[in-house]
From TrEMBL:
The organism's place on the tree of life at top rank: Bacteria
InterPro entries: DUF3868 (IPR024480), OmpA-like_sf (IPR036737), TPR-like_helical_dom_sf (IPR011990)
Highest classification ranks of the organism: Bacteria, Pseudomonadati, Bacteroidota, Bacteroidia, Bacteroidales
Domain DUF3868: start-end pairs: 12-97
Keywords from the named record: Signal
Protein name: DUF3868 domain-containing protein
Species annotation: Xylanibacter rodentium
Stretch forming the signal peptide: 1-22
Length: 476
């Protein structure tokens, strides 16, 4: 029997179709309609989605119909997984002969009596360079006995054209020779008047001591961490003679050192102490933010060159009401201990180990280690983006962390997030180039030229190449 081929002139969206194509098409081939068609690229995948309406598809008992999306560009082509609809006799013919489907295991096959009226089709395929500019056709072939194709129909759904996407530059951070970190805080430990002995059950001491212990435990129980020092600095308030306050601040800091040493058995060289006899800096911050009656005058006295005892006595004498207020509401908070736990973290070199640490304790990773694990993922994927998002959370003020996170956001067309990170990415050539890449993706080519020229002036060769593309009129 002679084969009959019908080519339908459904030239939909053939020109200037962007990376993501969305159309509504009806009756593209006999018996079949297509709606919600979309063809878009994300990282290494090109994904084809559509709704296939087969309500009007009638298949003779001794025939089969094969529906196949086909990507074509010149001599290159790729058949996507087919949908097969089999008449009753044709279905049993395949069963008797031990055959599953016409096109192979990837085919979605239905008996005509069981076919859905509408099928949601989704097929991701690995992107190859030849697919840029490729046309997606929708092919129907009608099969009779003896594996003979009786008729073929074909319609065109659209074309995939890659948008102009400059190569993004992810900067590798310098590796840290020693991964040094620290945790710090303040504890407000109460002592009975003129005493330097710590009573854990006194007032809120149990809670305040627990803050220091929790900070130490958070790193001490980590097998990848080595504590290098525990630094303590005690502060006293100004209401007693300066010499007496000096003795109190030294003695109370020493008492806390003894308490910590007894709990953790640190060597003397690990615990370092310092002291501030009178916390005038803290008093000044409090007064400056307050609305006390003689705020300006008291600030002037605090900033004066008077001896501490004379200064405190004058405030008390000239402004007794304000002094009583400060004594009650401010002075208790001035008596505190600042602490800092310094530690080092071992380096991680294996990608699988870095992935585990990122999931469990991302604060233990360096920016360079984040960069190494990002390289194990395809650009634009969720996993790739998550690495740089985590890195910038750990290093929120680092310019390289913000630059790489911005590039990851640009790669996923998340322009709002990219702008947020670019605000903190600095003014390196790579940062200007990233801003140009964002402008190109938003089709603001004049802004892109300004940023590219800045990057070029600093010496980034890639910026000159992209400028040349723009000069040659490349937009898509």
């Amino acid at each position: 029997m002679k084969r009959t081929i019908f080519i339908l002139a459904a030239m939909l969206g053939m020109l200037n179709v962007p990376e993501a194509v969305a159309q509504h098409t009806k009756s593209i081939i006999p018996g079949v309609s297509i709606d919600n068609f979309d063809m878009s690229r994300n990282g290494k995948y090109l994904t084809v989605e559509m709704g296939i309406d087969m309500a009007g598809l009638d298949v003779n008992s001794n025939r089969a119909v094969l529906l196949t999306p086909r990507l074509v560009n010149g001599t290159d082509s790729l058949d996507l997984p087919s949908v097969g609809v089999y008449g009753r006799r044709r279905y049993y013919y395949y069963v008797r002969n031990g055959m599953n489907t016409i096109s192979g295991d990837s085919e979605q096959a239905f008996r005509v009596s069981e076919k859905p009226e509408r099928l949601a089709y989704n097929s991701p395929i690995i992107y190859e360079d030849w697919m840029n500019g490729a046309t997606l056709k929708f092919h129907r072939s009608d099969w009779g006995c003896c594996q003979e194709i009786l008729a073929e129909y074909e319609g065109i759904l659209g074309r995939h054209d890659e948008a102009f996407f400059p190569d993004l530059i992810f900067v590798q951070p310098a590796a840290e020779i020693v991964k040094s970190r620290s945790l710090s805080g303040s504890a407000f430990i109460d002592f009975p008047v003129d005493q330097t002995v710590i009573y854990p059950d006194y007032r809120r001491n149990m809670h305040e001591l627990a803050k220091i212990e929790a900070t130490i435990d958070s790193v001490r129980n980590d097998e990848d961490v080595t504590i290098t020092s525990v630094w303590l600095k005690g502060f006293a308030s100004p209401e007693s003679p300066y010499r007496h306050n000096t003795d109190l601040s030294i003695g109370r800091t020493a008492a806390l050192k003894k308490h910590i040493k007894r709990l953790y058995h640190f060597a003397d060289s690990i615990i370092r102490t310092d002291y501030e006899p009178e916390n005038w800096e803290g008093l000044r911050r409090y007064v400056e933010k307050s609305n006390i009656d003689h705020r300006t005058e008291i600030l002037a006295l605090i900033d004066s060159d008077m001896e501490p005892d004379a200064k405190e006595a004058k405030i008390k004498r000239l402004y007794p009401a304000d002094y009583r207020f400060l004594l009650q509401n401010c002075y208790p908070a001035l008596r505190r201990t600042d602490y800092r736990i310094d530690y080092t973290i071992r380096k991680f070199n294996r990608v699988e180990e870095i992935r585990r640490i990122m999931a469990e304790r991302p604060q233990n990773l360096s920016l360079n280690e984040f960069y190494l694990v990002a390289g194990s993922y395809e650009e634009g994927t969720k996993e790739f983006t998550e690495v740089y998002e985590t890195a910038v959370r750990m290093f929120p003020n680092d310019t390289v962390a913000n630059l790489n996170a911005a590039n990851a956001a640009i790669r996923r067309d998340d322009f709002r997030t990219a702008r947020k990170y670019l605000d903190k990415a600095g003014n390196s050539a790579e940062a200007h180039y990233a801003r140009a890449s964002l402008a190109i993706r938003e089709e603001d080519y004049e802004a892109a030229r300004i940023c590219l020229n800045k990057a070029k002036e600093i010496g980034l060769e890639q910026a000159a190449l992209v400028l040349e593309d723009l000069d040659n009129g490349r937009r898509k």
